[in-house]
Amino acid sequence: IDFLVANNPHYEVSPRFGGLSTRNLDNLFGPGTSSIERGVPCAMEIGHIAMNDAVSGATDGYVPSTGPDSTGHRPTNEDMLMETVGYTDSSETPVSSHAMSMKALSHCLNGRGFIRSQAGSEFIPDFENDQLLSWLFPHLDPWGIGGFYHPRRSRRLNLEQQLKDLLMLEGSPFRTDPDFAFVYYNIRQKRAVLESVSFRVGESVRDRVIQDLLSLDLTVLNKLISASAGNPKYRPADAKDAEVMQVLARVNAVSHDLPGSNGYKVILRNEIRGLTNFYGTPTLFVTLNPSDRDHPLVRLFAGHEVESLDCLRGEELSRFERTVLAAKNPGACARFFHEMMRGFIDIVLRFGKKQRGLFG
């Protein structure tokens, strides 16, 4: 902290940064922790599932490399591995999007609070903020000179261009950081949502739709929310229910060209259906499953010295060591996956080439 305050311009007191607050730092870990150098934030809760025969049988083989491998190598405290699996109590899926819309509308009509996210908000912006990298990842930008959209950069780079450069640099710490790529991918996706998603209502009926939304019967709306929670495919049972559903249906969320979104997946599925209708159903299906743990390309992209003969001699690292290598180098794994897909498209499918590929 002392180094950042003394050497990083983004940690100086300014209109955008109020300065270091020891009190705020201490509050992150709860009362009575000011003398502790390390700890877990008080808002975080760590738990575990007690092992028994049922849990052991359900998870057997799910994390095959956390125990001793064939060489007898056992994980140390520094080498603990965890699968990136998340759990949620929510069942909000695209099927129940109407239920989510009704909940949001009911929340607003009942006068409850909400966070309005827009340009000019007092929250820390993550779009075109040259200070954000130093604030989120001070170990990656300790001097405050590598932020995205830095005003002193002679050549302006967008987020995608600088991300690619940082992740492709030889020996780059950005490639091995466990959080950097995911945080900035999330920022990139949010920016894409902002630029491509809008709520669209016909101009001729806009005022009418607004009035209809404000005049909805909250009792009926809450009843629909309860009914949809138990049955995402619920259909209106009476005229009042149908009226609410008709009003919601007149407000459309429009998304264009947003990779990863449900709308984008629908577009691709429709393209597949169109190709099937035009050319007929395929008679050959190919499944690719690149193994980043077992392929020498990951070691090469991670900066290890790898020779072509290594593939013939066999992998010198144990299964557990290869798993640790892949876990510590997410950038190398991503490049490996990209190369495998490009190789399949260029060599097997021969897309865009004169020679015929596997599918013609």
Can you describe what's shown?
The model has no long low-confidence stretch (mean pLDDT 78). Helix 4 (97-109) runs antiparallel to helix 10 (218-230). This protein is mostly helical. The termini are far apart. The chain has helices at residues 2-7, 22-28, 53-59, 97-109, 132-136, 159-168, 173-176, 180-196, 206-214, 218-230, 239-249, 262-279, 296-301, 310-313, 319-328, 330-349, and strands at 197-200, 252-255. A two-stranded antiparallel sheet has the order 1-2. The protein is globular and about 70 Å long.
- Uncertain stretches of 5 or more adjacent residues: none
What class, by secondary structure content? mainly alpha
Along the chain, the helix and strand elements come as HHHHHHHHEHHHEHHHHH
Query: DSSP helix count?
Result: 16
Quick check: average pLDDT?
Answer: 78
Q: Order of strands across the biggest sheet?
A: 1-2
N-C termini distance: 61 Å
**Which shape, going by the Cα principal axes?**
globular
| Number of E-state strands | 2
Quaternary structure annotation: single chain
Helical residue percent band: 40-55%
Calculate Rg over CA atoms: 26 Å
Which band does the percent of strand residues land in? Answer: under 5%
Summarize the main sheet.
Answer: 2 strands, antiparallel
Concise synopsis of the structure shown:
The chain is mostly helical and 360 residues long.
Layout: helices, strands, pairs:
Layout: H1 2-7, H2 22-28, H3 53-59, H4 97-109, H5 132-136, H6 159-168, H7 173-176, H8 180-196, E1 197-200, H9 206-214, H10 218-230, H11 239-249, E2 252-255, H12 262-279, H13 296-301, H14 310-313, H15 319-328, H16 330-349
Antiparallel strand pairs: 1-2
Helix pairs in contact: 4-10
